[in-house]
Structure formats: C-alpha cells, structure tokens
Amino acid sequence: MSVASDAARVQVDLQRLERLLDGIEGGPGALVHRLLQLASQDEAAFWKLLDSSDVWGGAGSLASAALAPNPGHPDAQWRDRVREIREILMDIGAMLMASGRAHPGISSWVLAFSNWNRGEI
After folding, report:
1. CA-CA distance, 64 to 48, in Å (whole number)?
2. d(CA 45, CA 58)
3. Looking at residues 72-84, what average pLDDT do you find?
C-alpha cells in the first residue's frame, strides 16, 4: 500500500474517530482534529504526530480515550462506541506497524484493545 493510500485510509478512520470522541472529557477530539488538519497541510508532520506519544502514550494520549468513563450514554451504546474507538485505533496502529512506523506504545495498545474487544470488556 502506498503512503498516499495509507494517509487517505487513516483520514477516513480519523473522521469516524472524531465523531465517536465527541463529548469525551480531556479533549481527545482536538488531537484528532489537528491530525486531520495536518493530513491536508503537512504530510510529514501528520505522520510524525500520528506515530507520537500524543497518540500512543499513556494517560492523556489519544489511545487512552478508549478508557474514558461513560459521559452519560446508555451503557450498551457506550460499550459499542468504545468498541468502535478501539477498532479504529487497532486499524491505525496495525497500519503504522506494518509500514515501519512504530511508536513503542502501539503494539501494547493494539494487543490490549484486541483482548478487551474479544473479551467484551
């Protein structure tokens, strides 16, 4: 897959993620919005940020948004939303690892998300 097609695929995922993160405390949606801006303005900066601790680090990272408390949605709806957030992040993480871009936290997050979704946690 080419870098251009990777970027296009990630942009679609990020647009979905931006909608899903709406209303989650801590501003993870702002980071997604920034990534979407960079994708059309500065591709090198886009890839650098996408493969950074801001996305794949610990507390406060975009990946940690999948651990956010329910902001008041019905429980089943919230579980479905979190599952979809995890699936999107797993897809992006797998693509980054396959392309040779690999923040050290990516593999741990992808494994955790996979296990949690499989275990319906």
Report:
1. 19
2. 21
3. 94
